[in-house]
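Input chain follows. Return structure tokens only.
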Amino acid sequence: MVYYQETEQINQVKYILEVDGLSKDFIPPLSFRKLIGLDFRHRRQTRALEDVSFSLKKGKILGVLGPNGAGKTTLLKILATLILPDKGSVLINGWSVGIDDNKIKSLIGLVSSQERSFYWRLTGRQNLEFFALMYDLENPGNKIEELFDLFEIDYQDNRFDSYSTGMKQKFALMRGLLNDPGLLLLDEPTRSLDYTTSLNFRNFIKENLVLEKGKTVVFTSHNMDEAMHFCDIFMILHKGRLYAMGTLDELRKKINNQTASLGEIFVKLTEGESLTRSQKSEVRSQKKKRKN
């Protein structure tokens, strides 16, 4: 009954996600030397997000793009109600982060590439049964079996520590889908996957979850090429600031270059600040491809 009420409310709101003026600062931890010496000076705050505002309609895949330290994970943690912003507001399906967190948690699923909260001595099935208890699901066994069929899993009764990286990532996604969330938050979920597994993973999300089931996805990545072929809308996030957001065509118009790659758009908008070596190499290779 609760599920149908929430689904009806999702269909009523214009934007499943509305973010206004979001800012977040962190104080870096003390080094061991400063802690022993009781030196608490010069602990400047680090700004992870600065005045970030955007909205997202239901059934879209938003790619949040930027290098390490851009603020991508901080943004997802706020959306997942794991941390609170210092300034600004977040509405998810019309519910406010920090006020309606229990309702929001019933709507979202969070998947990370650095997931360590599974119990490795248990089987995959036992892990999902444990996490299903936290959602207080009716007939969790049926839901888990549906997920096994959906992901074509036949190793669910093997110990979790025997799984490959790709297998573990599938279980991370299945856990994120246990409560049938309307909004999926994916924090660089393909980082540790090989090319084929990563491609299958993205295709499954786009075809089975977004196009078929109408899910909404927020996907963070520093891989511009991967995002270009997966996402509908792109956010350029750098040093905590939102430089631009829109479709690929809209971003190309913004820099007045109708053939620009996402990497080139990123460089143009951020003026090449603090690009990683891999990102610079990616931009050069994309330029060579178009010349050929």
